[in-house]
Amino acid sequence: MKRKAVSIMKNITDYIDTAMGRAVPDIILKGGNIINVFTGEITRADVAVKNGIICGVGTYSGDNETDVSGKYIMPGFIDAHVHIESSMTTPIEYAKAVMPHGITTVIADPHEIANVCGEDGLKYMKEASKNIPLDINLMLPSCVPATPFEHSGAIFTAERTKEIANDYFGIAEMMNYPGILSCDSETIGKLCGDIIDGHAPLLSGRGLDAYISAGIKTDHECTLAEEMSEKIGKGMYVLLREGTLSHDMEKLISAVTPHTLRRCAFCTDDRFVGEIIRDGSIDHCIRKATSLGVSSVDAIIMATLNPCEIYGMKNKGAIAPGYIADIVVSEDLSLNKITKVYKNGTLVCENGKSLFNSGAVYVSKVTDTVHLPQITADFFYNSPPETFTAIEFVQDSIITKKVTACKGDKLSKVCVIERHKNLGTKGIAYVTNYGITNGAIAASIGHDSHNIIVIGDNDSDMALAVNALGKSGGISVCSDGDVIAKMNLDIAGLMSVKSADEVIAEHDSLYEAAKSLNITDKIDPFLSIAFLPLPVIPEIRITDSGLFDVTEFKFI
Amino acid sequence: MKRKAVSIMKNITDYIDTAMGRAVPDIILKGGNIINVFTGEITRADVAVKNGIICGVGTYSGDNETDVSGKYIMPGFIDAHVHIESSMTTPIEYAKAVMPHGITTVIADPHEIANVCGEDGLKYMKEASKNIPLDINLMLPSCVPATPFEHSGAIFTAERTKEIANDYFGIAEMMNYPGILSCDSETIGKLCGDIIDGHAPLLSGRGLDAYISAGIKTDHECTLAEEMSEKIGKGMYVLLREGTLSHDMEKLISAVTPHTLRRCAFCTDDRFVGEIIRDGSIDHCIRKATSLGVSSVDAIIMATLNPCEIYGMKNKGAIAPGYIADIVVSEDLSLNKITKVYKNGTLVCENGKSLFNSGAVYVSKVTDTVHLPQITADFFYNSPPETFTAIEFVQDSIITKKVTACKGDKLSKVCVIERHKNLGTKGIAYVTNYGITNGAIAASIGHDSHNIIVIGDNDSDMALAVNALGKSGGISVCSDGDVIAKMNLDIAGLMSVKSADEVIAEHDSLYEAAKSLNITDKIDPFLSIAFLPLPVIPEIRITDSGLFDVTEFKFI
């Protein structure tokens, strides 16, 4: 697998000369408190950097000194698993959001855009990740489509996966564990190379043995401490997740012990840019872990050294000679005031602000991805029987419950419409506790195939909301025949081309608009429907192919 | 670098089917207490093995069960750094000695034979390591010769090192740290690939920063806890050594903490086969560590998972799904009664006995390596001045002291004679506290160039002892004109072609004979002289080029 890492063998004599004092360092960080991820200690020392590499940690002085006395010096943080698309911004805007929080490397799975745009989506992510200080290590999505129960914009075969795997950092999360357990050759055939991420919520016992035997090494879907302990005990690395919707840390933290620590890292998986800017990313994971009793140094180890070990990044994740100079300077261990972030020895952020930008990226092959004709209200005509199976949302979760509803109940109608190839497929179902009145919400974000999802209490607003998305896709809120809020997501119907600030403002407007529709405040009006088409999350889902019982693993 | 490891991608469906219960395991170890190197726990479980790979750890039953209830099940032990030559036996005899002690993998540096036979020596070690159950991962020696202050049998250039590096597991211990620190291009040029072992006794501060900046990742020469802490804190892995001569564990153990544990492994470096059979190898390191307060499980982690992480052996070092079935079954955690050892799922040792053998290995290019004419007593004629610099041995150490002697003192004469190319070079010096009377000892083991070393109190016994070695080399003890003991070391003058039992018996005879010569019992008569020509160990050494002051790093 390709590594986006500076080779330490380049300019090796420069490093030696710098350490020995025969050459002048490019930077000396003077007098900071170094977080030593190897010994767990915090010691006062100077850090000498040359050509983007740390050459010495000890007593160094001379030109190019930066006084960091009293401050804490630690390695750049690493997000071990993230879908950048879920930030709703482009890679450059994402980088400008996360880097001031100390994140210098991410393992990114472009699973969402791949499900819409196929290899064109991967190429876009590659192109858009260039010339950005953030190290974006792109994995090759293993599940395009995520399941055979929906229509995605592309299909990645095992054959093609093997052909292009070497161009990526590893194989991304293998969500299709039933395919692995049943030895499906198309699924097994995608397992190539050393780094294969897993995704196996609640899998245990023999099934877990089989899944791990296949060579899958990580899991970021643990939601129970016992689950995490079993997975670590069987050799997996566990990535503790704090995303926008999934908050797993609190339930998992008791499984972090002096022994298991080295097998743990942090990830955000899916995290909206507004939350990143407001609450942080991996720095937030560190704060959360320490608030739950993990020592600051141990939490930093989980955010730095550990993901480097997991993903084979040999000279990253420590403040030590020979390591890439990805360095975070913080006022204190709470990380609420990160004053400087260095990437490859270059100062890239200062006092919460990024100091970089990048040129425009050619995006034509990943725009205009919604292929639907104009629709009318009768598109949603549906006549359910007296009693029928419906969906109940669960508070603060993407899990749903399968319930029985009666014809007279106050229900919201939900519809998933294939949007990639205008196949004409759609699935209609009902939700018992969404509570929308006089309106509809439509979106081109509907995990993981990202067909159009629309929910409402009347067919005409639903049609209006879908039509409002246009060719580019996005999110629309309609009421009484008017489009009352709209956000364009020009890239694959998933990401905005606008700045993070603009994305946040538009996003706020969407929530403002949704509030006027009497949607229950126990449910996030947008995230709830965004994950409703994902037929691997219990108990019941709706895809463009119909209502799906995840427990029984079949259509209803 | 090449890996001698079974690919887990082979027969992947077999593993899955076995885990799921659809295929019959080749072996089920039933009801043992599993040492879990990931969680640090010991839990009762069954282990299912298929095609040499562990597929399941849980509840498995069926045909092929082996009852191990009440016994402890752990991964095979790994010697992270060993010169097999120092066992004085061939690789097959070495394997038969270590494997009953639970060692299933070694990282072997054929540094000794390379200094005598060059690439022919490496080829022999490769050939002789085939068809042996022990995984012998051969490193490419980086220091042939070890220093420019002696004449070795071969020279490995940087250019040639780069050409052949990919045929080896990594680059072996870079002893020439002055060459690194001074940016000598021939030395730096040998640093290629991911795995580069170090050797930097007492190096610290900026010198250590420089050495590590060059990409060197391990050190097995620590003798002080503070030295070890600094090295780990700067990113090195430390291999705690218990060899025949070097016993470092006791002084280092306080530097093993919950944080540094993962950066530590065990090695034997140089260990005679008799000691292996009597006291063990890495199992001895585990016992030693636990006797010093480390928990049994932590000591086992240092002997298994950790070296696998250090050397990138991804599916070795744990009892977990997908891992190579290198398994040790022990009656208890003292490891004094290891009942079974499995390698790649095959039972290779039982109750202290190895169950394997191998065919003869073609050895012609590594024999008859002593190229000297017959010599006579006047070869050693030497007339020292009234006062001169002499060597004092230090008890239980290979360190020596530089002292001043007078002409009338009772001294032993020592001589190192070039033996590879019959260059005619020799160095003569005097030892103050060896105490040999009426005799001489000669050997073709003289680290690291392995020239002939001879020590005695009279020139005629010294000449006899050297002549007695013949073309093949070995060790001889002479007294009053008679050869009173002799051991042939046909392979490079370093290793016997005989069985371990025969080697031990001959070795015992040598010591018996040496006893009769009134050598002080504070000094090992053979090991003391074996390391006397190594001009990197303080304070004073003798090579075929003369008396060498290691502190000043120049000839006297």
Reconstruct the topology from this structure.
The structure is a homodimer of 556-residue chains.
Chain A: H1 12-20, E1 27-35, E2 42-50, E3 53-58, E4 65-67, E5 72-75, E6 77-82, H2 91-98, E7 103-108, H3 111-117, H4 119-129, E8 135-138, H5 158-164, E9 171-174, H6 177-181, H7 185-188, E10 196-198, H8 205-213, E11 218-219, H9 225-233, E12 237-241, H10 249-252, E13 264-267, H11 273-279, H12 282-291, H13 296-303, H14 305-310, E14 327-330, E15 338-343, E16 346-350, E17 353-354, E18 387-393, E19 400-406, E20 412-417, E21 426-431, E22 439-443, E23 452-456, H15 459-468, E24 474-479, E25 482-488, H16 500-515, H17 527-530, E26 540-543, E27 546-549, E28 554-555
Helix pairs in contact in A: 3-4, 12-13
Walk me through this protein's architecture.
- By secondary structure, the first copy, chain A, is α/β, with parallel strands linked by helices.
- Chain A is built from 17 helices and 28 strands.
- In chain A, helix 3 crosses helix 4 and helix 12 runs antiparallel to helix 13.
- The first copy, chain A, is globular.
- The two termini of chain A are 42 Å apart.
- In chain A, 59% of the residues are buried.
- Chains A and B meet through helix 1, strand 3, helix 8 and helix 9 of A and helix 1, strand 3, helix 8 and helix 9 of B.
How many DSSP E strands of chain A?
28
Unreliably modeled segments of chain A: 1-9
Distance between the first and last residues' Cα of chain A: 42 Å
What is the count of helical runs of chain A?
17
Mean pLDDT of chain A: 95
**For the CA atoms, what is the radius of gyration of chain A?**
24 Å
Helix content of chain A: 10-25%
Structural class of chain A: alpha/beta
* Largest interface (C-beta under 8 Å): A-B, 60 and 60 residues
**What does the largest sheet of chain A look like?**
9 strands, mixed
**Assembly state:** homodimer
Percent of residues in β-strands of chain A: 25-35%
- What form of chain A results from the Cα inertia axes? globular
